[in-house]
Amino acid sequence: MKESKGLRANYIDFKKFKVDTFQDDEKMKESFIKIFPKVMKGVRKVYKDYKKELENLPKEYKTAPKEFWDEIVEKAKSLGIGLVGFAPVDENLIFENDQSTSIKILYDNGIVLGMEMDYDAIDTAPGPRAGLEAQRIYAELGIATNKLADFIRSKGYRAIACHPLGGPILYPAMAVKAGLGEIGKQGLLISKEYGPRQRLSMISINAAPLPELINEDFKISEYCKKCGKCSVTCPTKAIYDEPIVNENGTITRIDSEKCFPQFYETTGCSICIETCPFHKIGYNMIFKLKFYR
Ligand code: SF4
Ligand code: SF4
After folding, report:
1. pTM reported for the whole predicted model
2. Which residues fall within 8 angstroms of residue 55, CB to CB, at 6 or more apart?
């Protein structure tokens, strides 16, 4: 079992979100009224299932054949989850203060999941439409993560679902360990498939061995060094020119004191997603068509 070694998450004060911006548009207001309860329902299920897991924690790994992992990938894709990767859970990345679901213990292996946000909606950032899209994916990915965890349990394994909203572990760093991409200058996972335009979740599982990881050099940090667009367009100058390497090995790329007020005011900001070339024109255009040398 893996437990936190003391990493603390930034506390997001949901009450500060200017949700009244959704009220100006009837269609958006209607969508928000439908989406928010779905997010909370997913969060509640995660917590309920976690409590059930705690009642009877398994003492050992359960051996899983390659076919089992293939089945998980297939099931995840059928649930609309575009990114699936596997990595051992890193205790240094577990938060001691999971804000949304209070999860403190995880099984030893992780299945990292990513769901794409709509291109056109993110292109409207900053504003309520982009903010609403983030909420929609929190709801959809939360539901899909819970369903996948149920599927794993139905196969006789044990699973702890981790909701995309908040969550007990630093998802972007786990996604890198699972081979899904690299962290960009703005601190978000950049994948080949969607650039920075995804939300992440995870399931911890008591099965092993994990499928073999194919190490790939995505060349994203190399590109970031020459780009810097997010840093220039960030309205609060919250993106550090030189990232801070913390004692526990984690890296801080954003000054949250500067980012959060803008984040609350605009219901999710996302300018640093919208302006990123990996969102705008995509990974393949940048590298395969030689926009970058
Ligand atoms: S979310 Fe907005 S304020 Fe925060 S780092 Fe990105 S661009 Fe800057
Ligand atoms: S905008 Fe440029 S520097 Fe920022 S994350 Fe994207 S590629 Fe990297």
Report:
1. 0.94
2. none
